[in-house]
Amino acid sequence: MNIKFFNVALGLALTATAMSASAQKKYTEGTVNFTTNMRGQEVNAKGYFRADSNAFTFTTGPATIKILTDVSGKSMAILVDVPVASIKKAAIATPDEVDQAMADMPTFTFAPSTEAKQISGFNCKKVVATDSKTKKTYDIWITNDVVVPITGIAKYYREIGGFPVQYTSFSQGQSTDVTVKSIVDEKAPAGTFGIPADFEKISLDDLKAMSGGR
């Protein structure tokens, strides 16, 4: 396992359900299906959401990774399940670690454009996001077709004016492109937002040590 891989996943978890307050279809809970690229490989991931919680999960090799966050963005846990190695670990972030992760996120200004297109069946319009620190620009495609609870919202997309469908996710200096494929109006499976009793709770530093500190 590579800790940079987890950093990318963390960034995705914090942006998986960025949203707006104006919409046609309103979800109270459901699942966001999307694709991204991690370490040169396309990964299919799911983001489960409800009013107070968000769970981001994906599989890489023999490992299933789940990242849990709350509506306030003050708690986070990374669950690692590797059945073939009998590994069940839940790395719990401290409040300071969560705050630092959020502080490291970019700060954007947004400039809506007149460009529009359909992505994954959503009516999207392009917004150019400019990083206030690096001055780099990113094309973010958002839709106002839907609205979901604000769980997992990333502060750097909070004022973008819509639900990001095709966007760039950031974490600790790394970025990755994400495309939302669908949103399903459904209840998450039982236990989705909790830590199972058979998982050993560890620190993020412990997780980094397991990953070789990379």
Structure report:
By secondary structure, the chain is mainly β. The protein has one domain (3-210): Lipoprotein localisation LolA/LolB/LppX (outer membrane lipoprotein receptor (LolB), chain A, Clam), CATH 2.50.20.10. The chain contains three helices and 14 strands. Strands 8-9-10-12-13-2-3-4-5-6-7-14 form a twelve-stranded mixed β-sheet. A hairpin with a 5-residue loop joins strand 9 and strand 10 (137-143).
Principal-axis shape equals globular
Question: How much is the average pLDDT?
Answer: 83
* Major sheet attributes: 12 strands, mixed
Total domain units:
1
Q: How many individual helices?
A: 3
Beta-strand percentage range: over 45%
Uncertain regions: pLDDT < 50 for 5+ in a row? Answer: 16-23
Which architecture does the CATH hierarchy give at level 2? Clam
Spell out the blueprint of helices and strands:
Blueprint: H1 3-15, E1 25-26, E2 30-38, E3 41-49, E4 53-60, E5 63-70, E6 76-82, E7 87-92, H2 95-103, E8 108-119, E9 122-131, E10 137-143, E11 146-147, E12 163-171, E13 174-184, E14 200-203, H3 204-210
Parallel strand pairs: 1-11, 7-14
Antiparallel strand pairs: 2-3, 2-13, 3-4, 4-5, 5-6, 6-7, 8-9, 9-10, 10-12, 12-13
